[in-house]
C-alpha cells in the first residue's frame, strides 16, 4: 500500500495507467484482488494500418550498391499477404535471380522486398511486371468466383422450387 501511495505522489499519470495486484496478506483479507484498469492510451487507430498519412509514399525504392542489378523496395501499409504474392511471382520470372522479403516488426504494417535481376531488366521493371500479372490473375480469380457463386445461387433456387413443388 505504501508503494502505491509513493507512486501516486511521484507520477499520478503513470499510476493511473498501471495495473496493480497487492499480494500482502493484510490487504488480501480485506479485498482479495486490488486492480486498476489501464486505459488504452497506446492503442493505435485501426485505419492507421492501411491509410497512408500525408506525405507518406506507398513504395520507396533504394538501389543496393553492394550487388549489381539489386534494389530494395519498402512497401508501407502492407503485410505478408502482398509480400508473399509479389515474391512468388518474381521468383517465377526468368530474369529475377533473387527475391525475398522481411517484415521488420509484426505490429508495423510494412515489408521490405529485395530483388536482384540478371541485368536485362531492372529490378523496378521486374516488380512492376509482377504486380501487373498479379492484378490480372486476381481479376480472373474474382470473375471465376463470381461466376461460380451465381451458378450456386441458381442451382440453390432451382432446388428450392423443386422442393416446393414436391411439397417438401
UniProtKB/TrEMBL annotation:
Keywords attached to this Swiss-Prot or TrEMBL record, sorted alphabetically, are: DNA-directed RNA polymerase, Nucleus, Transcription
**Can the keyword ATP-binding be found in this entry's annotation?**
no
Quote the InterPro entries the UniProt record gives: RBP11, RBP11-like, RBP11-like_dimer, RNA_pol_Rpb11_13-16kDa_CS, Rpo11-like
The main location class comes to nucleus
Question: What is the residue range of the signal peptide feature?
Answer: none
> Carries keyword Nucleus?
yes
User: Per UniProt, what is one GO molecular function of this protein?
Assistant: protein dimerization activity
Which domain of life does this protein belong to? Answer: Eukaryota
Q: What family is this protein classified in?
A: Belongs to the archaeal Rpo11/eukaryotic RPB11/RPC19 RNA polymerase subunit family.
Full protein name:
DNA-directed RNA polymerase II subunit RPB11
**Origin species:** [Emmonsia] crescens
Amino acid at each position: 500500500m505504501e508503494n502505491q501511495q509513493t507512486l501516486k505522489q511521484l507520477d499520478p499519470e503513470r499510476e493511473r495507467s498501471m495495473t496493480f495486484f497487492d499480494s500482502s496478506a493484510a490487504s488480501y483479507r480485506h479485498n482479495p484482488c486490488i486492480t486498476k484498469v489501464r486505459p488504452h492510451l497506446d492503442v493505435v487507430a485501426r485505419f492507421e494500418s492501411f491509410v497512408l498519412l500525408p506525405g507518406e509514399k506507398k513504395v520507396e525504392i533504394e538501389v543496393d550498391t553492394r550487388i549489381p542489378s539489386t534494389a530494395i523496395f519498402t512497401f508501407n501499409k502492407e503485410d505478408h499477404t502482398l509480400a508473399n504474392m509479389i515474391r512468388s511471382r518474381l521468383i517465377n520470372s526468368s530474369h529475377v535471380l533473387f527475391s525475398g522479403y522481411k517484415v521488420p516488426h509484426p505490429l508495423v504494417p510494412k515489408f521490405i522486398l529485395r530483388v536482384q535481376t540478371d541485368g536485362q531488366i531492372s529490378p523496378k521493371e521486374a516488380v512492376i511486371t509482377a504486380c501487373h500479372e498479379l492484378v490480372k490473375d486476381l481479376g480472373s480469380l474474382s470473375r471465376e468466383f463470381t461466376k461460380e457463386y451465381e451458378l450456386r445461387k441458381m442451382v440453390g433456387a432451382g432446388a428450392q422450387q423443386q422442393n416446393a413443388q414436391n411439397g417438401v
